[in-house]
Design goal:
Blueprint (H helix, E strand, L loop, with lengths): L2 H16 L4 E11 L2 E11 L3 H23 L1
Antiparallel strand pairs: 1-2
Helix pairs in contact: 1-2
Length: 73
C-alpha cells in the first residue's frame, strides 16, 4: 500500500471515532485580587459536529481510493 492509502485509513478511522468519542474541554474562570486568586475550572465532554465526522470519513475514503489506484497503475 502507498502512504496515501495509509493516511486515508487513519483519517477514515478518525472520522468514525468522531461520531462516538467525546472530546474533553475545560475552561478556567479566575478572579485575581492582589496576590490572592480564586477560581473554578469547568469540564465538558462534547462530541464533534456530525458534519465534521462526515467530512473526515469522506476525505478518508477519497484518500484511500486515490492511494489504491496509484498503486495499481
Amino acid at each position: 500500500m502507498r502512504p496515501l492509502a495509509w493516511i486515508g485509513i487513519v483519517v477514515l478511522v478518525l472520522g468514525i471515532l468522531s461520531f462516538v468519542v467525546p472530546v474533553p474541554t475545560s475552561h478556567s474562570h479566575d478572579v485575581k485580587i492582589g496576590d490572592a486568586s480564586v477560581g473554578i475550572t469547568t469540564r465538558h465532554n462534547e462530541k464533534l459536529s456530525p458534519a465534521v465526522g462526515a467530512v473526515l470519513c469522506a476525505t478518508g475514503v477519497v484518500l484511500l481510493i486515490a492511494g489504491s489506484r496509484k498503486a495499481a497503475a
